[in-house]
Each structure stands twice: as C-alpha cells, then as structure tokens.
C-alpha cells in the first residue's frame, strides 16, 4: 500500500472535535395574524408544486435515519418530549463522513444509508448538498440551512476537504483559537444566533475544552404560518391523557378540509397541516386506539417507509382538529443515541479516523491528495476498492468526536386571531376527528425536497 509506511507514524496525541447542531421552528408573530383568516368557503385545493427532479432515495435515507434516531432517543428518555432535526443531524454527519476513513466511514455511511462505494458515495454527497441548498428557498415561510466548521488555528485542515465541503455543502470555514475558550465559545454562539435569525442565543452554555481542534455546526431555522390558522377563541384547557396520568393542556381548535388518513393496518391516524408556503406540511400521527397500542409501541411497530407510503394515500377530508399549543426547547447530547444506531468509532479515541479532514503527519503530493479526497477529475479511472484501501491506510491524525450537541426550539400556536362565523357549517357530522389529546408524533416535511426538517414526539404538551 502506498501509505503503509506512514501508518506507523500514527499520532498519539488525541485531538477532539465537536459536532454541534442547532435548530429552531418558531411559529410566533401574532402581529401578522389578522390577515390570516381561514377561508372555508373559498377554499380551493391546489396540488403541491414540486420540482421535476426530487432525489427521493437520499431524502428517504435521511428520513429513515431520523426516524431511527428518534426511536433510540425515545427509548433512552422514556416518555419525555423530544424534538430533533433529522435533516440537521444528517447534514452534520455527512460533513463528518466526508472527512473520515476506515470503520469510522463505514459506520456513518451505513447509518445515513449512503453507499460504501466511494464513487456512489460522492454522488450521495452532491445530491444531499443540493437538497439542503434547495430548502433555503424564497418563499413566504422561511427555511434557512447553514453549515460551518470551526477549526483551530493550529490544525492543518486538508485544503481539499475545505474546498469540497464548501462546494458540496456550502460550508463556511472559520478559524478559531480554541485555547482562548471564552472567545471560541462567543464566536460559535454568535454564528448560531446569526444563522437562526436571532432565535437561539447562548447556544453553548459552557466553553469547549481547550483541546478541541474542530467543531462542526449546522443551524436550521424554519418560520412558517399555517395555511389555515387555528381559532384562538376556541383554545381551551382540556384533558390530555399521558398514560395513566391526565394533565390539562391548552388545546387549539381547527376545522376544515385537510389531508387525513387511517393507516392500512388501522393502527394509526395521520393528519397533514399545511403551511401557507405551499411547500411545507406538518404531519401529525397518533395511535388510533392509544389504550391498546401506545405511541412508543406504535412507532416501534412501523417505520418511516410505511409513513411515507401512508402520506401518498392521504385524501382531503372534512376534519375537526384539536391540537395542543406547544413551546418546547430541548438541548440534547446525541452521543448515546448515535452509538445505539451503530455510529461508534468516531467517538472512540484511537479508533476514530478523520484522515481526510485533518492532514496529520502524512506527507502526500497533490495527485494523491486529489485521489484521497475524491475531488480530482481523473479518479473515476481507478478502481473504487483500490482507492478505499489506500484511504484506509492513511495515517490516523488521532482526532475523535467528543460530543454531538443538538438544540431545538419549537413553538406551535394558533396563528389567527379572528374567528370564522360559519363554524357549525363545517362541524358537520361526517367530519373526521383528529384530537391530539394523547401522546403523538409530528414531523415537518419540506415537500420540494421531501426532507423531514423537524420531528418530535410529545408526551406532555404542558412541559416546556
Ligand atoms: C431567490 O430570489 C432571488 C431574487 O429574487 C433570485 O435571484 C434567486 O434565484 C431566488 N432563489 C431561488 C432558490 O428561488
Ligand atoms: C490563542 O489564545 C491563547 C490564550 O488566550 C493565546 O495565549 C495564544 O497566543 C492564542 N494563539 C493565537 C495563534 O492567537
Ligand atoms: C454575525 O453577523 C454579524 C453581522 O452581520 C457579522 O459582523 C459577524 O461576523 C457574524 N458572526 C459570525 C461568527 O458569523
Ligand atoms: C403567508 O403568511 C405570511 C404572514 O402573514 C404572509 O406575509 C404571506 O404573504 C403568506 N403567504 C401566502 C402565500 O399566502
Ligand atoms: C393531499 O395528499 C395527497 C397525497 O399525498 C397529495 O397528492 C395532495 O397534494 C395533498 N393535498 C394537499 C392540499 O395537501
Ligand atoms: C506522489 O507520490 C507517490 C508515492 O508516494 C508517487 O508514486 C507519485 O509519483 C507522486 N506523484 C507526484 C506527481 O509526485
């Protein structure tokens, strides 16, 4: 092997890097409400505007990953509310994957549903990069996605990794002096605030260790308004049954024509609440008979593919919807859940290998560097397994992931101040009922890319 001899020089000092992600979904802005009346009488049902090409394989892989991650977290934190961003976490892991080799690479690729094959994997990156860029759209709701990598001033990040990251994920690279931990923390927090429209401040409560060499960050921000707002004067305290205990929660009311369905096996019901940008929906899923099959058991029983299939079977129905007003803020460490889905080596000093991200002690010439970063134009000529062998024998720079931190803020409210007179006309006997008065699962999907940007399970809407 070309790099066989260099392997011996494996670094003994351990460098640490952090992957951090931060997200936000506020639906506040009461001031804009008066113009947003539900218009039952004039309602027309328009099909979603979809671009000609959606890479559904990548979106499906990301969504399946997100669903599995959510399940692991539910098992870890029994009956706690959880909010995550599958897209945000997958985006970060993809950037990490780009810099890794060996089993570190294999594990991340496997969990994300990316190919093990180097060339296919490169296409997977390009497609995910495109999807992430296209959710940064110009519509009335606002979805912003941004990546950054903070690198210690002394750390020799591979130039080609920087370039590739920038080309594919539009990732910003910022030099940071992690030895000055207070300054590094402030810089990271400022970046997060900048990229979540000021919604997330003081993201890092404590400084990162001074041994940190790299911190990867992604921020995702979504601000949407319901296409059909809830009716605030009907929001009222009603019982919400979380298992054997009942709490009184503010349940909002909505009615009208919504996409609704009962799953094929009759286990769950699903409702779609559209945002007014005609490209984002929130889907709400709850067990049909929560006393017989609780939320966790339901979610263990099905998978994202089944949910995806059920989405395609939805039809517009007259519905009466009760949905809790929510304000959730979760700050989580994803390490254990990621380990539980098979991403282990990147956390393990010695086993973690980020030879493509950081130029340890390896002396490689340009041709080799192009080859190992898969960015050259001529690499298609080579056997992909040959390149993989070569990559796996690169000297390990001895850097490992210390922690993956994730913060999400989610606010759901009525978004409408004025009532609609003709309530009774819609509360017809034939209406479907979707009462989210027992634990439920929600996810927000961008219909242009099919990426699930946020997902949550709510066990108690009264807990922030
Ligand atoms: C966003 O709007 C700007 C200016 O109106 C336009 O140049 C750009 O192409 C738009 N981008 C997308 C993704 O639609
Ligand atoms: C980094 O910060 C430390 C602590 O403030 C300081 O001693 C050192 O000179 C700084 N290094 C650089 C390259 O600025
Ligand atoms: C945050 O935004 C301000 C104003 O645009 C800019 O000056 C600053 O450099 C940004 N900070 C970071 C860390 O991106
Ligand atoms: C969506 O709601 C916002 C806020 O009221 C409004 O500015 C925007 O025009 C609406 N968009 C559409 C397509 O109705
Ligand atoms: C309802 O769901 C179907 C199936 O997914 C979809 O084709 C249609 O566009 C949806 N309609 C609305 C208004 O969301
Ligand atoms: C780069 O290094 C490899 C082996 O270390 C050598 O075979 C190759 O000729 C070198 N290429 C250039 C352009 O120097």
UniProtKB/TrEMBL annotation:
Domain of life: Eukaryota
One Pfam family, short name: Serpin
SMART domains: SERPIN
Limits of the Serpin domain: 67-461
GO terms for cellular component: extracellular space
UniProt entry keywords in alphabetical sequence: Membrane, Protease inhibitor, Serine protease inhibitor, Transmembrane, Transmembrane helix
UniProt GO MF annotations: serine-type endopeptidase inhibitor activity
Transmembrane segments: 12-29
Keyword Transmembrane on entry: yes
Entry's family note: Belongs to the serpin family.
Name of the protein in question: Serpin domain-containing protein
Record organism: Arctia plantaginis
């Amino acid at each position: 092997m070309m790099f066989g001899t260099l392997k011996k020089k494996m670094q003994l000092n351990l460098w640490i890097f952090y992957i951090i992600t931060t997200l936000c979904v506020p639906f506040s802005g009461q001031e804009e409400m008066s113009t947003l009346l539900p218009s039952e009488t004039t309602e027309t049902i328009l099909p979603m505007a979809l671009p000609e090409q959606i890479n559904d394989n990548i979106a499906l892989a990301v969504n399946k990953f997100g669903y599995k991650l959510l399940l692991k977290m539910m098992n870890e934190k029994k009956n706690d509310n959880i909010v995550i961003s599958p897209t945000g976490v997958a985006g970060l892991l993809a950037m990490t994957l780009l810099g890794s080799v060996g089993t570190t690479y294999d594990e991340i690729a496997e969990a994300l549903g990316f190919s093990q094959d180097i060339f296919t994997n490169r296409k997977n990156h390009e497609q995910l990069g495109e999807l992430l860029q296209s959710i940064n759209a110009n519509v009335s709701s606002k979805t912003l996605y941004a990546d950054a990598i903070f690198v210690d001033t002394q750390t020799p990040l591979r130039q080609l990794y920087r370039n590739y990251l920038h080309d594919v994920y539009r990732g910003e690279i910022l030099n940071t002096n992690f030895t000055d931990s207070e300054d590094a923390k402030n810089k990271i927090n400022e970046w997060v605030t900048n990229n979540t429209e000021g919604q997330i401040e003081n993201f890092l409560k404590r400084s990162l260790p001074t041994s940190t060499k790299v911190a990867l960050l992604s921020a995702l921000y979504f601000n949407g308004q319901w296409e059909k707002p809830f009716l605030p004067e009907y929001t009222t305290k009603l019982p919400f049954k979380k298992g054997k205990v009942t709490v009184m929660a503010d349940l909002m009311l909505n009615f009208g024509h919504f996409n609704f369905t009962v799953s094929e096996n009759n286990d769950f019901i699903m409702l779609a609440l559209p945002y007014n940008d005609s490209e984002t929906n929130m889907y709400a899923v709850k067990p049909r008979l929560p006393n017989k099959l609780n939320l966790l058991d339901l979610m263990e029983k099905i998978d994202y593919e089944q949910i995806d299939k059920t989405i395609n079977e939805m039809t517009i129905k007259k519905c009466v919807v009760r949905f809790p007003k929510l304000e959730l803020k979760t700050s989580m460490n994803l390490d254990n859940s990621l380990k539980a889905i098979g991403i282990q080596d990147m956390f393990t000093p010695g086993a973690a290998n980020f030879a493509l991200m950081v130029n340890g002690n390896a002396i490689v010439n340009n041709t080799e560097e192009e080859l190992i970063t898969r960015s050259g134009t001529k690499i298609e000529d080579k056997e992909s397994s040959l390149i993989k062998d070569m990559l796996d024998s690169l000297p390990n720079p001895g850097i490992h992931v210390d922690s993956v931190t994730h913060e999400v803020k989610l606010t759901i409210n009525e978004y409408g101040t004025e009532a609609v007179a003709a309530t009774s006309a819609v509360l017809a006997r034939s209406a479907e009922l979707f009462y989210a008065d027992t634990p439920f699962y929600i996810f927000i999907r961008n219909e242009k890319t099919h990426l699930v940007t946020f997902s949550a399970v709510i066990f108690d809407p009264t807990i922030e």
